[in-house]
Amino acid sequence: MRRSALLTALALTAAAVTAVPAAADPPSSGYTLVFSDEFNGSAVDTSRWNYRTDVKAGSAQRPDNVSVGGGLMSIDLKAESPPLQGKDWSGGGLVSKKALRYGYYETRAKMPVAGGWHTSFWMQAGNGSTTFPAEQRTEIDVLEQDSVNQRTVHHGVITWKGSGVRGPYAPGITYDSGLDVKQWHTYGADWSETSVKFYIDGQLRHTVSYTPDQWTHDYLNIWLTSIAYPQTANGEGVAQFDYVRYWQKDYYLDNEGPAAYGYSESGGWHDSTVDGWNYTSPTRYATCHTAGNTATWRPKLGGAGSFQVYVWKIAHSGSDPNARYDVGHSAGTATKRVDGTAGASGWVSLGTYSFAAGESGYVKLTSSGVGCARADAAKFVRA
Question: What is the secondary structure of 172-199 as a DSSP string?
Fold first, then answer.
């Protein structure tokens, strides 16, 4: 390439990045940034990302199609001759190794110009080797866009029972955004226990009621991908992402799995066959008719603030009718008694308190010596 042409190309690239609109960021205060990649390096950070490597729809997905440079992550969308794994086209993408739960997710992206490519910013459990892993429960499609359309986008939620078996819940919307999505735009989703709110350029576009059940409390990986779909692509192209970020506002702790980081016990505790609030979530019970057994949930709060504290009460005729819950907060300790034999299982509020950032706050359950104290989950919801 001649020097003048090279300088012109570099200037155009710099102008394109500079023209990217400002980030939208979370829709309200109280969120803490806990995961991000600004793609400012010169290569994919493989300590944080897996490549999408499945074969699906019209393309095979190749790690070589994914690159990082100039502050962007790019997915090259290519024709393959001879065919690659039986496909005439290849796409690709990245899948976060870290799995996350409720909070605000955002990326800034530019769709390919050529038709026939399906570009997505979405969350689901998995490592990129298949879109139908055994552990799939919730899929949240923050953005799905077919490049045959200049302005159409899709937002939605799908529940799964694992390995490609659909669950009972799949609300979503496909609509004319009114925007040229082949230019830079910001896409976000605020996922809570009761809803998913979808945003474009900081504007709320759609809300899905999220009714959690045994399937839908799982941790999700972030996917940034583009494949040939729904029909064969009609030209090569590139999908680009400027960054991806995740902010957390509420904190959920369990007695097992990824949310067990702040859970501890003292005394005698045993696995129970009584269900908890989460899919495949075993509950625990203290040695029955023995006082002084404790279970403690201690969150890692990303920022100071006021939080309403809940515990998941496991209603059972053999539960502790006078279980003690102590909430350690910035001003001291508050105590509440909960009758585990009454009513139905569900979240019980222990009150709203101020907490410092870090791990000084906690909820501690202590058995009364009557019945069997039962422990499963606690949550700290920013007030």
Answer: EEEEE-SS-TTS-EEEEEEE-SSEEEEE
pTM exceeding the 0.90 threshold for the entire prediction: yes
Token pair for residue 230? 């729904």
Whole-number pLDDT of residue 130: 98
pLDDT at 368: 98
Distance CA 348, CA 191 (A): 21
Q: In the chain, what are the domain boundaries?
A: 10-249, 252-382
- C-alpha to C-alpha distances, 258 to 34, 202, 218, 243, 262, nearest whole angstrom: 15, 30, 9, 25, 10
**In whole angstroms, how far apart are CA 171 and each of 139, 318, 353?**
11, 39, 35
- What is the Cα–Cα distance from 322 to 150, expressed in whole angstroms? 61
Q: Three-class SS of residue 134?
A: coil
The CATH-assigned architecture of domain 10-249 is Sandwich (2.60)
Nearest CA to 126 out of 73, 50, 191 is that of: 50
Query: In 3-state terms, what secondary structure has residue 17?
Result: helix
CATH assignment of 252-382, among 2.60.120.260, 3.30.420.40, 3.40.50.970, 1.20.1070.10:
2.60.120.260
Which residues of 101-177 form beta strands (DSSP E)? Answer: 103-110, 117-124, 138-146, 152-159, 172-176
